[in-house]
Amino acid sequence: MNNLYLYAINCSEQPSHPSTLSVRKRLIDIVGAIVGLMITFIVAIPVAIATFTHEPSPIFYSQIRCGLNGKTFRMWKFRSMIVDADKLKHLVENQAKGHIFKSVDDPRITPVGKFLRRTSLDELPQFWNVLLGDMSLVGTRPPTPDEVSHYELHHWDRLRVKPGITGEWQANGRSTITDFETIVKMDMDYQRKWSVTYDLSLIIKTIGVVLKKTGAY
Questions:
Q1: What would the pLDDT profile of 20-64 be if each residue is shown by its tens digit?
Q2: Checking CA distances to 83, which of 9, 99, 114, 190 falls within 20 to 30 Å?
Q3: How confident is the model at residue 1 (pLDDT cuts 50, 70, 90)?
Q4: C-alpha–C-alpha distance, residues 162 and 164, integer Å
Q5: CA end-to-end span of the chain, whole Å?
Q6: Is 4 among the domain residues?
Q7: For residue 2, is it within any domain?
Q8: What is the DSSP secondary-structure string of the chain?
């Protein structure tokens, strides 16, 4: 019996997480997404110019990720890596521990991409995912299907809430946290502490972290 089947049984026996049913959280997501998309449209112009100047190619990048209860969706970002970077992933050393991929000075990242990542501007198109309802402003990191395929049963519990543009680990360490089990623990802490007020506090904290470029690479 595989872990996905066990998780499906587990989900059917558990009540939905309160955050997935909160009207106030969804309204904040919609308002935040609209404001975020306005900023995204403005930023897209200089990003497009810088990208085309360095290497004429699409400015947007999309990837299939797993969201609430493991449901897949297409997540959008400003492209920070060379075209077809996913096909070269096996050539890059994974410096993280567990079911997550991290690499300092990843050679696939373009010069423009390094700036986008340091400033977190590459994340802006995800406001579209928030508006669609696939993501939230605050939640857990959305894993790839490849990562999820290796999950143990307790890892699936982190997918009981919507993935977020920011969350517990982004606001409290970001890329300096390279142990997947630590991220899982932080995600579960978020679920236990969740409230609309707590979401707002993480958003405010994330803004400070982004402005200081703390833990970004």
A1: 999 999 999 999 999 999 999 999 999 999 988 887 889 999 999
A2: 99
A3: very low
A4: 6
A5: 39
A6: no
A7: no
A8: --HHHHHHHHHHHSPPPGGGT-HHHHHHHHHHHHHHHHHHHHHHHHHHHHHHHHS-S-SEEEEEEE-GGG-EEEEEEE--B-TTGGGGGGGS---SBSS----TT-TTB-HHHHHHHHHTGGGTTHHHHHHHTSSEEEEB----HHHHTT--GGGGGGGGS-BEEEEHHHHTTGGG--BHHHHHHHHHHHHHH--HHHHHHHHHHHHHHHHHTTT--
Tokens describing residue 64: 């299939």
Q: Is residue 16 part of a domain?
A: no
Number of domains in the chain: 1
Q: What is the pLDDT of residues 85-141, one digit of tens each?
A: 888 888 887 777 878 878 777 889 999 999 999 899 999 999 999 999 999 999 999
pTM: 0.88
